[in-house]
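Sequence in, structure out. Go.
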Amino acid sequence: MQSKKINLVNSKNQKSPQKLVKPFSDPISVQKRSQEFSEALNRGVLKSMTKDEYYTIEEVAKMLKVAYLTVYRWIQAGKLMAYKAGKQYRIKKEDLTVFMKEKK
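Output:
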């Protein structure tokens, strides 16, 4: 009995390398993005973002002496403002103080 090699990749469904879109492949778009970034730095937009203090859900739970899941539910319900960084949530210090004042 002869064994046959099976081609697992269908050549009709394969995309050619010329058709794939490469991000930042256009030199004009790279220049434009870097210019926008430098303008944002000059305006102070990014500086103010780095000065802000952020907490994780675990840190907020420890500070408020509640369970992790409680803080997570507040975020899901929209009661506590949070920003998602990848798979993790970050809570801005100012948003936490606003939340605490509203809870009183």
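Check: Residues 24 and 30 are 6 Å apart (CA to CA). The chain has a mean pLDDT of 76.
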